[in-house]
Amino acid sequence: MKWIQVVAVMVVAYSTTTPVWALWGKAETKTEGGNSDIAKKLGEYKGLKHAIGCKDFQNQSGWSGSWQIGHNLSIMLESALHDSGRFVIVEREKLGDVMLEQDLAKSGRMAKGKVAQTGLIRSARYIGTGAVTEVEESQSGGGGGISLFGVRLGGGKSEAQVTVIVKLVDTTTGEIVAKERIVGKAGKVDLKVGLDVAGVSTDLGGFKKTPLGQAAQDCITQAAMVIAKKMEEFPFEGSVIKTSDSGKVLINRGEEFGVEVGQDLVMGAEGKTITDPDTGAILGKEEGKTIGKLKVSKVDKKFSYCDVTEGEKNPPAGTVVRSK
């Protein structure tokens, strides 16, 4: 039992100036924090949520080590956005495995029953990603410390700084709608060892406990706040599923997107795509003509029932629904 305590202390004491005897007895303490208070930093939010996915950050810094820094940053960004309470996270990490399973089911080689179906993968209108441009690590104050079982503890201070360019991409047009350079430094935010996004847990403990992991956490906390603030400018969007026999309009947004009974929504025709005449690149879409107004009358987890309060009584499936 004593040997287990010593090993735990060595892990905690690495890259810290805290005296090792002050850490004794704290080996079993789980460090929390990090993204857990990001909602407080952003302030209370009662608006409708956007669907967003995250992709691995490109490592353009030339840094290499035992950590996949670009992949770890994308996981940390997912966690931060989820904790903000402003987004529905669309999983992209395992998308390849999901598609392979669907293709296998479609081939007819699997037993019949409830198998994976194609055409049901949820899309994300926006993708959060970026690039790591600089990574700095340094060791100062090499003297001092003590040695236990041949391992030196508390003998100096490790510092780290990470610079990223965070980007928010509109998946419809491919346009970068937000971009910002962010510098993160070790020691500025608390650690959050365990990440939990939509019930899926990921342990980045080894990475997050290092000065490099702390600097990355500082970057991601700032990045999530940049994205959340930018998204406040964008209108909430959904689509009409169908009109029921009773005249209720069903839309593909429900409780998980923050929809509540009594909310007013606007139905609009799909705007025409705007393309650059010189390059052929898609620049965006025209704002479609308003064809009616809705009021939410009942909310399910993934969809809602609405009453038509003005305009088109039987909107076709796919009609765009926006926040008023």
List descriptors.
324 residues, alpha+beta, Rossmann fold, Thrombin, subunit H, six-stranded mixed beta sheet, six-stranded antiparallel beta barrel, elongated
Word description of this protein:
With 324 residues, this protein is of the alpha+beta class. It has two domains: 2-106 and 117-231, Rossmann fold; 237-323, Thrombin, subunit H (Beta Barrel). It has seven helices and 18 strands. Strands 1, 2, 3, 4, 7 and 8 form a six-stranded mixed sheet that branches. Strands 11-12-17-16-13-18 form a six-stranded antiparallel β-barrel. The longest helix is centred in the C-terminal third of the chain and has 21 residues, at 211-231. The protein is elongated and about 65 Å long. Residues 1-35, 94-99, 110-121 and 141-156 have low confidence and may be disordered.
Contiguous runs where pLDDT drops below 50 for at least 5 residues: 1-35, 94-99, 110-121, 141-156
- The number of distinct structural domains comes to 2
Number of strands: 18
How helical, in percent, are the residues? Answer: 10-25%
Rg measurement, Å: 24 Å
Instruction: State the shape.
Output: elongated
Biggest pleated sheet: 6 strands, mixed
| Average pLDDT reading | 74
Our estimate of the beta-strand percent is 25-35%
Q: Structural class of the secondary elements? A: alpha+beta
CATH class of the largest domain: Alpha Beta
SSE layout and pairing:
Layout: H1 2-13, H2 20-23, H3 38-42, E1 50-54, E2 58-59, H4 69-83, E3 87-89, H5 95-106, E4 126-140, E5 146-148, E6 151-153, E7 157-170, E8 176-185, E9 194-197, E10 200-203, H6 205-208, H7 211-231, E11 237-243, E12 249-251, E13 264-268, E14 273-275, E15 282-285, E16 290-299, E17 304-311, E18 320-323
Parallel strand pairs: 1-3, 1-4, 2-4
Antiparallel strand pairs: 4-7, 5-6, 7-8, 9-10, 11-12, 11-18, 12-17, 13-16, 13-18, 14-15, 16-17
Helix pairs in contact: 4-7
